[in-house]
């Protein structure tokens, strides 16, 4: 029994994929954010939104954009915290991991609903949003379950 537990300790097995996703997620999020906001700046919509002029046509758009920036920034910080917890093998890691993944699903859903209510005629990304929500939900379902039932997770995150 002790030998089996010893074999399961450490950042191996499926946890390698979790570790890779922890590094890929903030990089992917950062790239997506910068692409979106660079496009907004280059086509002039950023200035319209931040000046408040866009609120005449789309009430709440400025709050939506600023809220997205704030929450995306928090998600990047959460990824960094998760990386630290992961490599320090902290007992808190599985709980924070599941909470962050669940928060992401909720945020994507709420963001999609709010964006479509602010811009009902302009909101063209419903299919894209649906795919992203489904992808995030599957990530939560698969890896959240793994965090809860895996013997390796229980043997690794003990500090």
UniProtKB/TrEMBL annotation:
- Bilayer-crossing residues are 12-31, 69-88, 95-118, 133-149
Matching entries from InterPro entries are given as: DUF2569 (IPR019690)
Per UniProt, the keywords (alphabetical) are: Membrane, Transmembrane, Transmembrane helix
Does this entry carry the keyword Magnesium? no
Top-rank lineage group of the source organism: Bacteria
Q: What is this protein called?
A: Protein of uncharacterized function (DUF2569)
Organism expressing this protein natively: Cardiobacterium valvarum
* Species classification: Bacteria, Pseudomonadati, Pseudomonadota, Gammaproteobacteria, Cardiobacteriales
